[in-house]
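Quick start: read one record
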Amino acid sequence: MLEVRNLRAGYGAVDVLEGISLSVPTGACVCLLGANGAGKTTTLSAICGLIPASSGEILLEGREIRRLRMETVVRRGVSLVPEGRRVVANMTVEDNLLVGAYTRGDDQVGSDLEAVYRRFGRLHQRRKQLAGSMSGGEQQMLAIGRALMARPRLLLLDEPSMGLAPQVVNDIFRTIREINEAGTTVLLVEQNARKALSVASYGYVLETGRISFEGSADTLLKSSQVVEAYLGDAS
C-alpha cells in the first residue's frame, strides 16, 4: 500500500527526517514509535502532503505522491487523524463529519455518515452539538469519524491516545483494531508503545529523524532496547 524510501523532510531549510524508509502492506496496521521530537508527526505530514519533502520517494499503491497537494493525496485514498484532534470547535459534530467528505462528489456521503454514527453512537446523540463543547474522548471519536468520511484506504493516526483517560484509550484502540480488521490499512503514530503494539503487526522505532529499529510487534515487545526506552519494566 505505502512505501517510503529515503525520505528527507522538515521545516524551512532544516530536515527533521534524515532519509527514513518504511513500508505499510495493504491491510496491515503498522506503528511508528518514538519520543517527542523524533520526527513522527513530520513523517505523517510529509506522507499526506501537509509539508513538502526535500528528497526521497512516497509511493501509494506504486504511484508517487510526494509532490502532490494534500487535497489530491486525500482523493487518492489517504486520510489523517491529526495530533490534538483539531476539530472545528464552533461547528456542529455533523458539520465536522461532513467536512471530511469535502473531496467527494458521489451520492454515498449520507450512507457513510450513518455508518459513522453506527460506529460512534455518541456522535449521533450529539450531532447538533458544537464540537468544542465535547470531551477529549468524544472529540477523538469525531476526528476519526471525520477521517473515515473520506473513505480512506490508508488511515494515518497521530497520537490518538494523547490526553485521554485509560478507559477512553481502550475504546479508541478497540476502534482502531476494528477499522483495520474491516479492511482499512493503518499507519499509527503513538507514544503509548504497548498499546500501539497491541493492535499493530509490525513497527518502526524513530530516533532523531532516523529509523533505529524495526520488526514484528512480538519482536519489538521482546527487544530490550525497545522495552527500556518505551515500555518500561516488562515484568
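The chain has a mean pLDDT of 92.
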